[in-house]
Design goal:
By secondary structure, this protein is of the alpha+beta class. It contains 9 helices and 22 strands. It has helices at residues 16-27, 60-79, 103-113, 153-166, 211-216, 265-271, 284-297, 341-358, 371-374; strands at 8-12, 31-35, 51-52, 86-87, 91-93, 118-120, 142-145, 149-151, 170-172, 178-183, 186-192, 197-199, 202-205, 228-234, 244-246, 251-254, 260-263, 272-274, 280-282, 306-313, 323-326, 333-337. Helix 1 runs parallel beside helix 4 and helix 2 (60-79) crosses helix 8. The longest helix is centred in the N-terminal third of the chain and has 20 residues, at 60-79.
Length: 376
């Protein structure tokens, strides 16, 4: 398919937003080069819990975008039903037994939206999903969302890059960090840390938590709410848990080969200290505490062991809503910056590529424009 107004594009960032956008542009006949400062998925995509969902409460446009994102994953899953990196085995969530418990309100909201939701008690949980310790569920109960799932983003990105390469796409990983090159107020390509210059008709910036700082260098504003995140991946452990768990003290996502990925805001806050050189120190005692919290909510309370720990910024815009589309003040310059990169990854790539290729704006992205920050 060759229906693009641009013949070439450069994408900075080989996480899920960058690779997805690049692939969709290549499918439109655009010559695309991805620039990344190392191997693909070496940033936020490599340390994402990657829970595919639109649970709880958020704006209507954000909910619709997330549901479209899940729809694209279902289409992909239908073509790869035997894959070990994409599953739809549901999600289970519950809150603490205190006055902050919002399970009732969340359940009522999801029912109004038509979101597939079932309220269960600890005694009933085994009827909807296996592997959960029933005594861990608080008296207010839990919500089971059968339509939710998970993806292993590094494996998905590798899958998408195969298709990208087959279409003639190019991945550059040996030029160091890249930035958008501008001339006469327009984006004209990419400049790399090693002195390379690559011209392009359009440039997409998809560098995760680095996006706000990079656009600021061009005089643009995107407010930033990025926190430090901690993701612990366990060694393989045979266990019946299949659903993603979002609990008061830990979130757990099953993974390929019997692994589990764990995260929690409190663990990141207590375990991670950023050094003056930009690196991180990790308190292993807190990590062990996170493993213990995971064991408490899993049937049989298994002994889990650390395989790897990922630390870094979790991309979250200052107002919590996605930032997607053209920077109007600089023609040819596009950005993709958002939380929920896994859920949104495929649909954001599709819609952003549509905008780059056609020059038109997609209505699903109407409230997510970068210029909303400069107009405040």
């Amino acid at each position: 398919m060759t229906d693009s107004r641009v013949s070439s594009a450069a994408v900075i960032g080989a996480g899920i937003f960058g690779v997805s956008t690049a692939l969709h542009l290549a499918r439109r006949g655009v010559q695309v080069t991805i620039f990344n400062d190392g191997p693909p998925a070496n940033g936020a995509s490599g340390r994402s819990l990657s829970w595919l969902n639109s649970a709880r409460m958020r704006s209507d446009p954000y909910h619709r975008l997330r549901m479209a994102g899940i729809d694209r994953y279902r289409t992909l899953f239908a073509r790869h039903v035997d894959t070990d990196w994409l599953r739809f085995d549901g999600g289970l969530t519950w809150d603490g037994d205190d006055d902050k418990n919002e399970i009732d309100a969340a359940f009522r909201h999801e029912i109004v939206l038509g979101y597939d939701a079932v309220r269960v008690s600890g005694a009933e949980v085994a009827q909807v999903t296996p592997g959960v310790a029933p005594e861990a569920i608080t008296p207010q109960g839990a919500i089971f969302n059968a339509g939710e799932g998970w993806v292993d983003l590094p494996k998905l990105i590798a899958h998408l890059l195969q298709a990208f390469s087959a279409l003639g796409g190019r991945l550059v990983t040996d030029q160091g960090a890249a930035k958008v090159a501008t001339e006469n107020g327009k984006a004209v390509g990419v400049e790399t840390a090693k002195g390379g210059r690559f011209d392009a008709d359009a440039v997409v910036l998809a560098t995760g938590p680095a996006v706000p700082k990079m656009v600021a260098e061009a005089g643009q504003v995107i407010t930033d709410g990025t926190p430090i995140a901690l993701l612990v991946q366990t060694k393989p452990h045979a266990h019946p848990l299949r659903s993603v768990l979002n609990t008061p003290r830990v979130a757990i996502r099953p993974g390929p080969g019997g692994t589990f990925s764990l995260d929690a805001d409190w663990a990141a806050e207590e375990a991670v200290t950023q050094r003056s050189d930009g690196g991180y120190d990790i308190n292993k005692v807190v990590v062990e505490g996170l493993l213990a919290e995971a064991a408490k909510v899993m049937e049989g309370h298994p002994t889990l062991e650390v395989a790897s720990i990922g630390v870094g910024g979790k991309p979250i815009p200052g107002d919590g809503e996605p930032v997607i589309g053209a920077i109007k003040a600089i023609p040819g310059y596009y950005v993709a910056f958002s939380h929920s990169g896994a859920t949104l990854g495929l649909i954001v790539g599709e819609l952003l590529a549509y905008e780059v290729a056609t020059g038109e704006t997609h209505p699903m992205l109407a409230t997510f424009r970068p210029e909303r920050f400069s107009s405040n």
